[in-house]
Amino acid sequence: MNTIKIKRVPVSVITKFKLWRQGKPSTRGRLQVSAKVGLFYSTSTGNTEAAAEWIQEKFAKHGDIAAPVDICEANVSDMQAFDSLIVGAPTWNTGADEGRSGTAWDDVLDELGALNLKGKKVAIFGCGDSVAYGDYFCDAIEELHAAFEPSGAELIGKTDPAGYDFSDSKSLVDGKFLGLPLDDDNEEDKTETRVENWCVQLVSEGMK
What angle do CA 52, 201, 69 make, to 5 degrees? Predict the structure, then answer.
């Protein structure tokens, strides 16, 4: 049986998700499509949004990155306008085989694989709780990783699990996380440094 993580979801998040499900037009006009790197996220409590803001700040020292955009306020096809992508999601449906983020990402996973991202780089970050849900730490990173693979994108940004305290994660493959895990519930003091180091790594792997 899957263990479902239940927390109070901010009204603003619920409203944005409902608007997205109702098929409201894309807010493409707000996208900085002139930037080389697109930054998309989804959030339940605000942690992933905060992480996206950290990433924008730190990556901007090295490359040309757009402002963070909640995926529920954009069309998936918007992603094709960028040379590279950084995407992030929380892990909400812990223990689930699919739909692990519990956000708008879950309804567009098939669309991600249908994108034409050949020649583009994609990096993934995720937020989780390594204490209360240490058996499923940042599982949604792996789900996003698998969803983007058919698009032809080059998936970069794997990280070493050293320094993390967790029990298990679907996102840990061959001794590496498939992206950047963050834990603002228990290790908020490490987030800035982890993001800064990861952004330097992404640039070293060819994202600019």
Answer: 20
